[in-house]
Amino acid sequence: MKSTHSIQGMTLIELMIALAIVAIIAAIALPSYQAQIVSSNRNEAKTALVQLKLQQENYRLDNSSYASTTNFGNPTLDNYTVSFDNISSTTFTLKATAKVGNSQQNDTGCTELSIDQSMNTSPATCW
After folding, report:
1. What is the reported pTM?
2. I want to staple 10 with a disulfide (CB 3.0 to 4.6 A). Which of 14, 50, 61, 125 is the partner?
């Protein structure tokens, strides 16, 4: 009598083909994922700046000038440092600067975001 054996499992070539497919998919997906993370972090900074601008306007309604960091404190963001500049009775500028040593440093042209009392934003391409 003949015994028939069926071979089960994957051959080395089939395994290598599967790994190649996974590597190609990862090579395409990873840069897109990283770009999405950078964009999401930038949106978080923009949201914080707009919220601070609204707080500044509310503060100005009750006071004779805009607030400084001593009145509000600096918001804590994981990827950006927020600062108040050019504060007077009629003007202010809020800036969010990407922290050194994180992925936001790769956000070309958008490492420093700013907004002023008139909703002028810069750099315009990042807003």
Report:
1. 0.78
2. 14
Question: What one-character DSSP code corresponds to residue 99?
Answer: P
Q: Where are the beta strands (DSSP E) in the chain?
A: 80-85, 93-98, 112-116, 121-122
Residue 27 lies in a domain: no
Task: Provide the domain count of the chain.
Answer: 1
pLDDT tens sequence across 14-58: 999 999 999 999 999 999 998 999 999 999 999 999 999 999 999
Taking Cα atoms as reference points, which of 100, 95, 111 lies closest to residue 38?
111
Query: Is 4 a residue whose pLDDT tops 90?
Result: no
Alpha-carbon distances of 18 from 10, 43, 94, rounded to whole Å: 10, 37, 51
Burial of 1 (0-12, 13-18, 19+ CB in 10 A): exposed
In a domain, 86, yes or no: yes
